[in-house]
Specification:
The protein has about 240 residues and is of the alpha+beta class. The chain has 5 helices and 14 strands.
Length: about 240
């Protein structure tokens, strides 16, 4: 199937992007408002974009109403600071809950039942228990399109890495963290790793096999088909 992207509405284009870019890393972003209210949100349009200085990017859409700017964006714009926390399986439920659209005056750490750890170089707190966190200062904001989307670039000022996963030579023990990523509107956990090539017999056993589910949902289920889903990256309450 060939789909002409120039004729797609934003929701249709978003569905194709999130269902095709797999898996997507989740930047679990903590910020503070100008009034000091803590916000927490998972951003899966997230990646590293530079080495010296180390830089990350976040792509942020408006809220599900298509107009209101997300608290994450407003807080970063207004304060110039944010923290990106790594999502792992033990905190996946709290991460998912933090995708709901809480009112701007709600401390989302409290709302989802998470504790805070202080940062060193920025004001927003880190997620206590996250194995890796990046303290970031705003570098630049680039508007994208005409629907209120923005790309935020941040310079990493401090890396926080849990001692047991920091290996000699500065390598992260990626196999020990149970990293959680995004699959369209669902999640996946890193349960295996490989270095090519794989044996043909093994490849044959895996050909065409669907991923296994860790919940009780049927094969082919997607939250995209539910009323709670929105094309904003947030979940409706």
């Amino acid at each position: 199937m060939i789909i002409d992207a120039t004729g797609l509405d934003p929701t249709s284009a978003y569905k194709l992007l999130i269902g095709s870019i797999l898996p997507r890393a989740i930047g679990w972003v903590s910020t503070l408002s100008k009034d000091g209210v803590a916000n927490l949100a998972p951003i899966s349009f997230f990646t590293g974009v530079g080495r010296k200085p180390p830089m990350v990017s976040l792509s942020l859409q408006p809220r599900s109403d298509g107009v209101t700017l997300k608290d994450t964006f407003v807080n970063i714009r207004d304060t110039g600071e944010f923290v990106v926390n790594m999502v792992t399986l033990p905190q996946a439920h709290e991460m998912h809950r933090s995708a709901f659209e809480f009112a701007s005056d709600v401390d989302e750490f409290i709302a989802v039942g998470l504790d805070k750890d202080p940062s060193v170089a920025v004001r927003p707190p880190r997620v206590k228990g996250a194995p890796i966190s990046f303290e970031c200062k705003l570098d630049r904001i680039i508007p994208i399109g005409n629907l209120g989307d923005h790309v935020v670039f941040g310079e990493v000022l401090r890396f926080h890495v849990r001692d047991d996963i920091y290996l000699p030579g500065g390598r992260i023990d990626t196999g020990a963290v149970q990293a959680v990523g995004r699959l369209a509107a669902e999640y996946t956990v890193v349960h295996n790793a490989f270095t090519p090539p794989l044996e043909p017999d093994l490849l044959a056993t895996l050909h065409g096999r669907r991923v296994g589910r860790l919940d009780d949902k049927p094969a082919g289920y997607s939250p995209i088909d539910s009323k709670e889903w929105s094309a904003s990256g947030a979940t409706r309450i």
